Each structure stands twice: as C-alpha cells, then as structure tokens.
Amino acid sequence: MKRLGIILSLVIVPLVATTHGITLDALLQKTIERNPEIQKASHDLEQAFGRRLVFRAVAWPEATIGITAGAQGGQRAGEKPIQPFGFAYGNFSQPIFNAIVPPSLRRGDVELLIAQQRLNVAVVEQLHAARLAFYTAIYNRSLRKVRVEQRQRLEQDVSSQKERYQSGLASRDVLVGAEVQARELDPRIEAAQRAYDGAVLKLAEAMGEDLGPGAKLPEPEGELNYASVDVDLDWEIKRALERRPDLQLARLLVRAANEDQRIIEAAYYPTVNAVVYGDYIPVSGVRRENTASPRRSDNVISSEIRAGAAYTWQVVDNGKTYGAVLKQRSVREINELTLQKLEADVPREMSRIRHDLEAIGVKHRSLAGASSTAEENASTDQQNLAEGIVSQFEFRLAENDSLEVKSNLITLAYQQNLALAEWDRATGRYFQFSHDSSQNVR
Fold it and tell me: pLDDT per residue over 15-46, tens digit each?
C-alpha cells in the first residue's frame, strides 16, 4: 500500500556525506537485491538443495567397485620368483523395504520449503523495516520544516515584543514569555533532525550501502498524506492465515519435526536390501579354501558373482531410539503450540491495527476542521492587520496556531502510514506491494 506523492524537498544532511534521492519503489527493489539478511537467506536456500539430496540418498542404491593388485615372490618349483596378481570386485545394494525412506524423502522436500519460507520471512522483515525507516525519514523532515517555520514566527514575535517593551507598551514578562516559547522549539527541531539522520542510516543499511567516509546516503522523495481506508477484517484474517510467510514457516517446522520423529521410529522396523556381490580374477589357477568339497579341484576359480537379499532387524536398543523419539516428539509438540499461538495472535493483532486506523481517522477529521478554522483565523487576522485592527503579535500567534495544527496533521498521516505498513505485514501482503490501493486495502 503506497500513498506517496512525489515532490521536491530540501533536507539538511551531514556535510561529510553526499545524498541521492530515492523513491519507495526503488528502496524496496534495492533492499531485495542487496540487503545482507536477504542475501544470507538466499544462500541458505541454496544449501537446502544439498541437504535434500542427503535426505533422498537413503532410497538410492549403493555400489562399490575396487581393484586389488600385487606381486608374490618366493622359490617354488615350476613358477617364476616374482609372480604378479590382481583381481576386481564389486558390491551393489538396493533397499527393498526400509521404513526410513518415505519420511526421509518427505523431510528433504520440507527442508527445501523451510528454506524458501525463511527467505520469504527475511524479505518481509527487511522490506517492512526499510519501509518504516522511509516513512520515519519523511515524517521527521516534514516535522522539522514546520518547526523551523514556527520558530521563525516566534522569533518575529520576540522582536515585536522587544520593540513594544522598549516603547513601554508591554511588560518584561511578556517579552520573556515570547523568548521562552521560541527557544522551546530548539530541542524539538534538533530531535527531528537526529531522527531523520537515524532513519536515513537505516535506509542505507537496508539497501546494503557503504557507510564509510564519504558515503552516499539516500534521500527519500515524497511526503506523507492521509487517505481514508476501509478494511474487511474477517476476510483479511482468513487471507492472512493462509498466506503469511511466518505462519507457513511454522507449519513447515511442525511437518519437519513430525518427519524427524518418523525417521527415528523407523529404526525399530526391519530392513530388506537386495544385494549383489561379484569379483573378477583374470588369472586362472587361483585357489580358495572350500571346506564344503573334499576335492581339491573344486577350489580352483577365476571369478564369481553372488546375488540375494539381506535382512536386518534391530529389536533391542536400550532406549537409544525410543528416548530419541520422545525427545523429538516434544520438539514437535512445542512447534505445534507455537503455531497455535501465532494463529491465535493474528485476529487480535489485525483487530488492534483496525482500531488504530479508526482512531487515527477520528482524530484526523477533528483536526481537519480545526485546521480550516486556524487558517481562517490567520487569514482574518492578516486582513485585520492591514486595517490596523489587530497587532502584528496577534497575527503571528494565529499563524503559529495554524502551523501547530499542520504539524499534528503530519503526525497523524505518519501514524496512518505506519499502521498501514503494519497491516500489510500482518496480512502477508508485502509480496503484492503496489501503488494500486484497491488491491491492498479493502
């Protein structure tokens, strides 16, 4: 949801760094491309492909091929003193029944989905943080501008009261009060400048910018505007429960813990493997001891191959498997409770945001009327000033009141934009971020 009009604005920034203008669209794009946390999550996704291969490997066949060679020596009748020899051998095993295979294959798929959702969560978190920093920078820049204008008005009041005091038309108390009122704005202006500088640094960090000496800091373009919004709470809650990346990640963690438990439990099931063993001896006359036959000629072989099935069943493990199952079951139950808490928090969080938007709307309508009244009073005092009915002091006070109402309106626009950003995060709409507000707020 974007409600930003593009304008030219002047910003006071530190002299040690240059600045460059940036829009919200460009900020979000650069954040996705260069943010360190998003890049780390992207690399973790690449690692997840390798981990999935490991989980899938239990269903693949195992094969071994080897060659053994050497030489034998000695003095024997009818043979050479040095006699080389060599043979090749091979093993092949394919699981026929193994209870670990189905959950391991599912666990590998879930591992990849978890990495994808963690990337999505990182994207949402970093985009949200960058967006809030963008709004904060614009807000404090606008607030500082209004405060500076207020201070100029009050300093003019101080000059006017000083002239009246010197002329004997005003008491010293009035002059001191005007000076105090003008000086009260100094810390507020400095606070707004510091908040702006801090927000700009957060923008640079979100985009992965270099923050060394002479860094080129971003300067947010635009201003904050208030716009009436309406939300369908029930419909949005339903959509949020379906598409929020953190909820999807929590569900995947529950699935992963369940598959891990099944993998551990599979140790109690028997396993059956099809096995093939063979060796090749290129030189005949090699003998092996064969106690099953009384004839020496039966011991002469050149090669052989054997095939069959191997059956394994571990029945007793002294609690090693069963204890691990209980431990993994507790992990799964913790993940389930965390998921239930997250799902239960969604309606409450979205209801709170909607109430905040409604409260901001009520305050804005009230201040909008007060703003119109303050502008009318300032305009009337300006006319009366030209006719000599009111003093310069009264006119400037009316202008100052108008500026104070304007600063409050800017604050409400800032609060609404923050609430809308929170609404986008709560509804999982950051991947549908667009200028078309009809697609974002209902």
Answer: 344 567 888 888 988 999 899 999 999 999 88
Q: What is the CA radius of gyration of the chain?
A: 39
- The model's pTM: 0.74
Beta partners for residue 306, in sequence order: 277
Residue 34, beta-bridge partner list: none
The separation between CA 67 and the C-alpha centre of its own chain, rounded to angstroms, equals 53
* DSSP-assigned letter for residue 16: T
What is the arithmetic mean of pLDDT over 115-119?
91
Strands (E), 10-158: 18-22, 62-73, 82-97
Q: What topology is assigned to 4-12+22-71+84-439 in CATH?
A: Outer membrane efflux proteins (OEP) (1.20.1600)
Task: Name the residue ranges covered by the structural domains of the chain.
Answer: 4-12+22-71+84-439
Handedness of CA 7, 8, 10, 14 (dihedral sign): positive
What DSSP letter does each residue of 174-220 carry, written as one string? HHHHHHHHHHTHHHHHHHHHHHHHHHHHHHHHHTT---STT-EEEEE
Amino acid sitting at position 88:
A
